[in-house]
Structure formats: C-alpha cells, structure tokens
Amino acid sequence: MKVHPQHHALMLACVLTCAQPFAAFAKPAAPLPFEGSWRSCFTLRDGTGSAYDGHKICTGYDLVQRGQNVCGTWSEFATGIYEGRLQAVATDKTHAQWTSICGRTGSETNTECQTSEDEGAPQAWEAINQPLQLCKGRLLVGNDSCTVQHAKQGYRKHHLSHAQRTELLAEPWMQQCLSRTP
What we know:
Layout lengths: L4 H19 L12 E8 L12 E11 L2 E9 L3 E10 L4 E9 L22 E10 L2 E4 L6 H6 L1 E4 L3 H8 L2 H8 L3
Antiparallel strand pairs: 1-2, 1-8, 2-3, 3-4, 4-5, 5-6, 6-7, 7-8
C-alpha cells in the first residue's frame, strides 16, 4: 500500500499529539542526590599580607552521579589552592563513601592526577576512606553527625551547569569512574 507523503506528516502529527497526555505518566528519572556543584566560600583575613589575604576563597566539589558511582573534582584551601579528583560510592540517598583520590601532593593525597601529557596512561588513585553525607541540603565530609551546627558548616549545593557537566563527562577518567562496578 502506497501512502501519500502528506499523509505521513498528518499521521506523525497525530501520533505526537495523541502521545502528549500520556507523557505525564512516564516514570521520572531517579534523583541523583550527590550530583551538583557543592561550595563553601569565605573571605580570608589572615593579616599576613599573603596573596590570598582579603580575597574570597571558594572550596568544594563538582560531582556527577550515575547509579551508585559518584565521581568528580575537589578543591580546598590550606597554604594555597589544592585540587584533585575523587571517586565515591553512594550507599543510600544521603550517604556515600569516598574511596579514591588523586590531586596536588601535600593536600589530601600523595598521588598526582594524570595530566593531558599522560594521556593514555591509566589513572593512578590513592585509597581513601572518607564518609560523605547529605545533611539539611548540604554536603558534609568526614564523620560529623547531621546536626544544625554541622549542616551550617557543610558545602551548599548549586546546580551543575550543562557546560560544567559536559566538561567533566568529556574526561576519560570520569567515564571510567562512572562505568565501574561499585
């Protein structure tokens, strides 16, 4: 049976129009509670005249979650800015276990992250056993209990922009992390 081209367009329009009311019944995607840009900011006033004195310093985590796998980057401030990568496993909607780390030596790790010059070499990771917890809308790192006092000290969640997420997902180490078996 030969169908006229105008009938193809009419049939497609009908299918799309008829399907719209049922879209509301589609199962929504499972929430990804750890995915986001988690930040804590402060103005450093150390009085030493250091390069950071008087500047706003933000530290935190940019995390992507796929199933139980939580992967991303971290930054912190000590005597300077330290940055790196992390792997964690979500154990439920509010708890995860940070299992692997790499970054600037002298921070949380002694294992440097792979650079673009090392492309093709497997990423070396250092084992770490650090709890992550969501508490009253904030991310807590460490063994602190979920109390009002600790929640105020945690990292505030911000939306991970499309550009940030795309940049993270373009990294080979990120794809390996998200695809691993927890």
